[in-house]
Write a structure and sequence with these properties.
By secondary structure, this protein is mainly α. It has one domain. The protein has 4 helices and no strands. The radius of gyration is 14 Å and the shape is elongated.
Length: 84
Amino acid sequence: MSAANFPSRLLARTGRGTLAARKPPQDPPSYSRQPAANAASVAEYIADMTGELARVAGAARLDMLTYLLNMARMEAEGHITPRP
């Protein structure tokens, strides 16, 4: 298996697709214009992406990177408003 195909093959096995498959909720410049209205959707996007990256780092046995990515995921999850 080539190094270039490693992340996408790993993510395909997890059923999550590739990292590029999920689009952010809006274009990044709009985040700074409407931070309060968009904060939960941005946090949700960041939580999803860092979770996927943490799985890739874990599979490569990059322990410190996995830890840091999971910490970022947990921080982002703390900013997601619960849905009724």
